[in-house]
Amino acid sequence: MKYLALDYGLKRVGVAVSDPEGIMAFPRCTLKREVRKTFFAELLALIEKECPDAIVLGYPLHTDGSECLTTTQVRNFAASLRRRVTLPIYYMNEVLSSADAESRLAEAGLKGRAIREVVDQEAAVLILESFLSQPESLRIEA
Predict the structure, then answer these.
(1) How far apart are CA 3 and CA 118, in angstroms?
(2) Gap between the Cα atoms of 44 and 68, Å rounded
(3) For the chain, how long is the longest CA-to-CA vector?
(4) Which spans in 24-111 are helix H?
(5) 118 near 110, Cβ under 8 Å?
(6) 3-state SS assignment for residue 35
């Protein structure tokens, strides 16, 4: 199965996709959330182009497992997305994914602006890699 992962943020959404077999994750793009209608048009066009079998949303929790404000925002985003697509939507815990993405990019030699331009995509890759390595029985549908 092919998956499309989203690292939701208030300003930007990082996107990653898996290969058709659902084994590897690849960064795809970062979508800006400046205008809601434009954002969803771009996201839906991307979903149509990529033809995933399911969508994976990063699900932000505190390190102790408790919810935060962004958790509610992601649930609202999932509900909005569910009204627009018929694909299954899954949640994947994304604790520290952005910090890990920044570290990974810095280790690859990127600095400052170069990191900021792709960090959301890299966070989506980390979310998708975690999801792909998780047994199907533990996957949580939104």
Answers:
(1) 19
(2) 27
(3) 41
(4) 36-50, 69-82, 97-107
(5) yes
(6) coil
